[in-house]
Write a structure and sequence with these properties.
Layout lengths: L1 E6 L2 E6 L9 E10 L2 H20 L18 E8 L12 E3 L3 E2 L6 E2 L13 E5 L4 E2 L6 H4 L2 H13 L8 E4 L3 H12 L5 E4 L3 H10 L3 E3 L20 E4 L6 H8 L5 E4 L11 H6 L3 E4 L5 H12 L9 E5 L4 H6 L9 E4 L5
Parallel strand pairs: 10-11, 10-13, 11-12, 13-14, 14-15, 16-17
Antiparallel strand pairs: 1-2, 3-4, 3-8, 3-17, 4-5, 5-9, 6-7
Helix pairs in contact: 3-4, 3-8
Length: about 350
């Protein structure tokens, strides 16, 4: 198959061996796959991610950074066939997405960060048939590919156990932060304060459900907000993954506030337990999405309840992946490019 792949910190394009499904695995032809910042991060810090997984336990421990692997975990594809002995849960020819985890055939791997389970930057993928979610027939491929990033935000939103009495603050308005705002809105939480230094991201947060969007250089989002009747956030979502944010939040939030750590920080973090104890803070650590989040995200995209069309930018072929990944950070970068690996 043709694929864009990472090898020794470089994105290359070429031929890779076609994956062969085992029992419980579906063979899928990729139609569309989002490009995520985690893949850009892997170009520069992939070996560190692998080493941390080996030290602390994690899903990337089996990855060899010197060997090629095909990324892509925000995908939509067409079922082609199944491995022998499979239940064949979705009929061939139908489009599907999935939680990007392979649990069948006695193994466990993150699709797109595995030598055995290539991701959506390639023409073919293997998916766990028990996790397949069928795409509605009239939903565009690129819109459907936003299911996974939206689902992560929905998971983070519910991880904070929000109630109608909460005032929520979402720090960072990339795809995950916007998904958190959308998830909180689905749960009936208001008001929602969004924080991002970039005007375009603040506008996106308002469009998807925040009452107010704050430039942190102009106003501390942790203090009482005059536009909201001096209400103060008591439920804070960290969606950046930058070292130093957690101790800043602990110092700034109110008594008995709750903090949800959604950003994926790979560096050590230092804070005073004393400070958190004195305020009786609760800190939740959010992770990836679950099946319920994927199903909810797809329903909300398909019925128009959550509009992810503003997230989408260019649709590219394999030859455009390296340039797209190189330019996906910064204030003017789009939320998502998508690749169609059937195109060069």
């Amino acid at each position: 198959m043709k694929a864009a792949y990472i090898e020794n910190g470089h994105i290359l394009v070429g031929d890779m061996t076609d994956p062969v499904p085992s029992a419980g695995q579906a063979l899928v032809r990729t139609h569309s796959c989002g490009l995520c910042a985690s893949e850009q991060h892997f170009l520069h810090a992939g070996q560190n991610v692998i080493d941390l997984s080996r030290q602390f336990g994690g899903p990337y421990a089996a990855l060899d950074f010197t060997r090629p692997f095909v990324p892509g975990h925000e995908f939509v594809g067409e079922v082609i066939d199944y491995g022998p002995g499979s239940k064949r849960t979705v009929r061939p020819g139908r489009r599907v997405t999935s939680v990007p985890v392979m649990r069948s055939a006695g193994g466990h791997a993150v699709i797109g960060f595995s030598h055995e389970c290539p991701g959506g930057w390639g023409e073919l993928m293997l998916l766990d048939e028990t996790a397949l979610i069928e795409i509605p027939g009239d939903l565009d491929d690129d819109m459907a590919a936003m299911t996974e990033p939206l689902a992560v935000g929905l998971e983070h939103a519910r991880r904070g156990r929000p109630t109608k009495d909460d005032t929520a603050l979402v720090v960072g308005c990339g795809a995950i932060g916007l998904g958190v705002v959308a998830g909180l809105r689905l749960l009936g939480i208001a008001p929602i304060i969004a924080v991002d230094p970039h005007p375009g991201r603040r506008e996106a947060a308002i469009a998807i459900g925040a009452e107010i969007a704050v430039d942190p250089a102009a106003l501390s989002p942790y203090e009482p907000i005059p536009e909201l009747g001096n209400r103060r956030a008591n439920l804070v979502y960290e969606c950046v993954g930058r070292p130093g944010l957690l101790p800043q939040m602990i110092a700034a939030v109110a008594f008995e506030a709750r903090i949800v750590m959604g950003g994926y920080c790979m560096e050590p973090e230092t804070f005073f337990v004393f400070a958190a104890q004195n305020k009786r803070l609760t800190i939740h650590f959010a992770a990836g999405e679950e099946q319920q989040d994927m199903e909810l995200a797809l329903r909300c995209i398909a019925d128009g309840q959550i509009d992810v069309r503003p997230w989408l930018s260019r649709r590219i072929g394999l030859s455009g992946v390296a340039d797209a990944v190189a330019t996906m950070s910064g204030p003017l970068a789009p939320i998502r490019h998508v690749v169609d690996p059937r195109r060069w």
